[in-house]
Amino acid sequence: MGFSTVTIIILLIAVVLAAFAAVVVRTLPAATIFLAVTSVFLASALYLFGMQLAAVIELSVSAGLVTAILASAIALLKPADDKPAATEAGRGDASSNAPANAARNSRLMRYLALPIIMLALAVALLILAPDLDSSLIWTDIYSFSPQALLWGERTLDIIALIFVILAGVLGVAALIRRREGEER
Amino acid sequence: MLTKLFIVALVLTATAGIYSIVATRNLLRVLIAMEIISKAAVLLLMLAGAINGQMAQAEAFAVALIIIEAVVTAIGAVLCIALHAKTGSLDIGLLGKAAQAILPTAAQATPAVLPTQATPAEEGAHNAE
Fold first, then answer.
1. Chain A residues touching residue B19 (CB < 8 angstroms)
2. What is the C-alpha to C-alpha distance for residues A48 and A41, in angstroms, rounded to an integer?
3. What local confidence, expressed as pLDDT, does residue B43 receive?
4. pLDDT in tens, B46-86
5. Is B30 in contact with A34 (CB distance < 8 Å)?
6. Domain boundaries, position B97
7. N or C terminus of chain A with fewer C-beta within 10 Å?
């Protein structure tokens, strides 16, 4: 087992742990930071796997842009939204005044099953999953570079992506547009 | 061993995201969970590319997936802000109720939400009165 393989295994474990942390942490800023950490580990794994272009885009878009978008959204919202778990659970009436400890315990109970499910799945998959190491082909059987493939063979994908980005921009513009008579 | 670990890693990552979507009602957390599931999809593309010997193809798909993921996040974040502005909460259950106030097309379907604009004939009738 070479250095690169060991590093990829460590990075895969780190991706899983960071994703788990992003799900179970209590506050939204911490969840966003752990999501960015997941992206960084995934980008490192992509780089070691020989997917340099995807690694750079994962690092700049997922760990950079998406984190900035989520952080901006959290900053624009009231910080109080993240505090009571009762609000998150959709109970905004009398139980929203419950003590913080009760809310924390409720959240703990909700996420208690996740590590158990993940552990059981990991054990089951390590036993049952097929070992395909011998069929792994680390080099491309075609002589395309990713850039040549994207701009030459998959031009339609690029055009579709441009339209997806345009649709995203128009969607954001439509959602934040203020209608006539609406207060600023 | 590496393929087994890859399968375990992508299934566990996807499980964490799916569980979060099921367990939470906070729209921003649902958005983060969707991001985590897309990370599992990138891992799957990596493994599929290595098994088929088509790394460049897998890389092209991974790039497309990452860009689409960013667009979805941007729209989702703005939807969160709009939902919070209208309802004061991020409860995903309120999304349907708040849709009329948030989405212009839904608002057009209910004229009471939009400011009414009188037609010239109606203006004439009012002036006559």
1. 23, 111, 113-114, 117
2. 11
3. 93
4. 988 888 888 888 888 999 999 999 999 999 999 888 888 88
5. no
6. 2-102
7. C
Q: Work out the burial of residue B126: count CB atoms within 10 Å of its CB; fewer than 13 is exposed, 13-18 middle, 19 or more buried.
A: exposed
In a domain, B41, yes or no: yes
CATH number for the domain harbouring residue B42? 1.10.287.3510
Q: Are B31 and B25 in contact (CB under 8 A)?
A: no
Please give the Cα distance from B89 to B81 (Å, whole number): 10
* pLDDT-based confidence at residue B91 (cuts at 50, 70, 90): confident
At residue A182, the pLDDT reads 59
Classify the C-alpha dihedral B31-A24-A22-A86 as positive or negative: positive
Interchain pair B71, A20: CB under 8 A: no
